[in-house]
Write a structure and sequence with these properties.
The protein is mainly alpha-helical and about 90 residues long. It has five helices and no strands. It is elongated and about 65 Å long. The model has no long low-confidence stretch (mean pLDDT about 85).
């Protein structure tokens, strides 16, 4: 998996751009090619859920406990930094 996560990928999209420009207004409403209309926050949430579920084979039932553990870890780091800064 490192090959796919460690490299930068560039895809040419001239054909898609030309095709999108050739669509009538009705078709443009059905087939939205405007990347600026993507809700990136929502996309990232779904992307991460998909990665967790499929390549990592980690069931979503563990998410609640994982969030608790993460919050606890963040709290511990903050307390440790505060304690070190007082020393």
């Amino acid at each position: 998996m490192a090959y796919f996560t460690s490299n930068q990928w560039t895809f040419a999209s001239e054909n898609i751009t030309t095709f999108a420009k050739s669509l009538c207004s009705e078709d443009k409403m059905c087939f939205n090619f405007d990347i600026t209309s993507v809700n990136w926050e929502e996309y990232i949430v779904h992307y991460c859920q998909g990665i967790k579920t499929y390549p990592l084979k980690d069931p979503m039932v563990n998410v609640k406990q994982a969030r608790k553990n993460q919050q606890r870890s963040v709290r511990d780091v903050i307390l440790l930094r505060y304690h070190i800064s007082l020393s």
